[in-house]
Amino acid sequence: MSKLLTLPAGRRSKWVVLAVWVTALFATIALDLPGKFSEAEQNESTSFLPGDAESTAALEVTQRLQGAETAPTVVVYQRDSGLTAADRATIEQDREALNEATAQFANSTPFQGPEVSPDGTTALVTNVLQATGEAEDILEPVEDYRAVVEGGEGLQAAVGGPAGASADAIEIFEGINGTLLLAAGGLVLVLLILIYRSPFFFWFPLLGVAAAELGARGAGFGLTELGVTVNGQTSAIASVLVLGAGTDYALLLVSRYREELRRHADKHEAMALALRRAGPAIIASGLTVAVALLSLSLAKVNGTSGMGPVAALSVFIAMLAMLTFLPALLTVVGRRPFWPFVPHLGDRGADETRGIWRRLGDRVGRAPRRVAVGTTVLLGVLALGLLNYSNGLTSANSFRGEVESVQAQDLVAAAFPSGQSAPTDIVVRDPSRIDAVVAAASQVDGVAEVSPEPVGRDEQAVQLAATLRFDPYSTLAFDVIPPLREAVSAVAPDALVGGPTAVEYDLRDASAYDTRLLIPIALAIVSVILVALLRSLLAPALLIATVVLSFLAAMGVGAVVFDVVFGFPGSDPSIPLFAFIFLVALGVDYNIFLMARVREEVQRHGTREGMKRGLAVTGGVITSAGVVLAGTFAVLAVLPLVFLTEIGFVVAFGVLLDTFIVRSILVPALVLDIGPKVWWPSRLAREDGSAAPPRGGDEASSGPEAVRQPQSVG
Question: In terms of domains, do 371 and 304 share one?
Fold first, then answer.
């Protein structure tokens, strides 16, 4: 293992490692694998459906009846005082122009209408687009329709319906990756300049991150070829994880390498020692995060299960790049890029007995129980914000700013039943039960109308359309689906209820199930890894408890900020699951770096002194890493989707909370208060360390100084 870790530091092998990476990256670019990964994204909500959802079964039938999955386009015209004769003439002219525009698209039908509202203020013109699996076959027709429809003085016009909503989502997701990478890359660049205080060195971690990002997107395309569902949100979060985690691992490695350069004249020897000492902690951290993320693969929602392998693979490749590509590159260039603060042989490094983090440890150690109780109470108060939590975010209000499909829905809702723009499908397998189904469904509270005329039929099934009274993408509409299904199944047991509203209801229901299933699984996975790493049962339990408390506090603050500061309508039902997975995995990540070093110090100096020394030598670099990771997640707020803004805020705030409060204050206070028993049942719980260094390894040959880590990367 040691030889494999130090391969990038070899005099000849460093060139081999670089050659392998450069060849792989050139092949990835030549084959346009990152571009193909973006093209493989599926951003329609129907692509996320779990296989056992009723709306999935209904969708399979309606696709057969309609020849493919369909998305109605609704063009709405509205004048508050009532449509005039000139307005009606404009609408008729637009309908003819729309039919000329849509004739060039083989997957579209002619526009029908207009259908005028009872109050005479609003008219609808509609057609249907067939989904082909290609985003352009939805986006391009809708763009052409919007170019035709302009309205007029006092006449409002907008293109919406399911086709319009899909086009808006596709257009936003198409620009996400470029915007995100530019913003996150710029932020990381600035932070690295501040951390390293060098006009040159920051380029090397950035090159490592860029290599990891290219590799992750190329590998991500391979996953899509294996059937993994990927959407724009998955792609964005995977990029953030590569930037954040990759930069963190670079900081930790460079921190140790810089310190070893102060002890060894030979850069190859310094890098070998850095890899040998920091490598295991980076590997443990990367595998913990990757395995925790991989647990998402067990989710029912395809979008969530797809994020599992993509995110896990992205973190793994980031870890691999920082343990191979970056050290090989740094070994080639040597000390000079650190200018003007070049580490020379004999320069003084970090001191386990001095510095701000040592002083913090000493202060916590004066009254550790009081500090632990006070910190726990503070986090508990922050968690009370969860009383304000709401899951009212839906696909209709998930955009930051205005989009045309939402404007169109608002115009429809003002004059028609809100569900007119996206009817709910009822699939009846026994034609003799049609009248009974229509009668039963019409009696359900929230259903405005059920047309007895089939919108599709064959020998095996009949498709009916039910119009809901509420916005089809609102929580009020979602609440209609269970009683509607109950009423329909009472008269036709094999009937199915589907359509856009049922799809989103089933997605939200599956998300709630995934949260209940995956949170315990993720906790179990992380616990096992911590037990194996620390060889203790009590210490991992304490670390897990602190990270969970940090998660609850971050969610509580988020719930208040989303409502009071941002004015968001609520949170996506999947926010708790994603926030938990990210915060637990990444929070434990920093605890691994801290406690692995603490355990090493405890073997020499005992639990109390070992805790303080471990905090002193890891505080600076871990804090730098936490700030970088929080910053990269915060960049998600520049994207125009409420979900990404929310997950970015919660994770960024949670990482900062974990970095400055949990890892720096609460964990040291708990360890100092409990004492040696924290390592139960290992021998450290009984012996509480010794004055002698551990046997063998590099400590025996290099002395105690060889195992010290720097306090900061500067």
Answer: yes
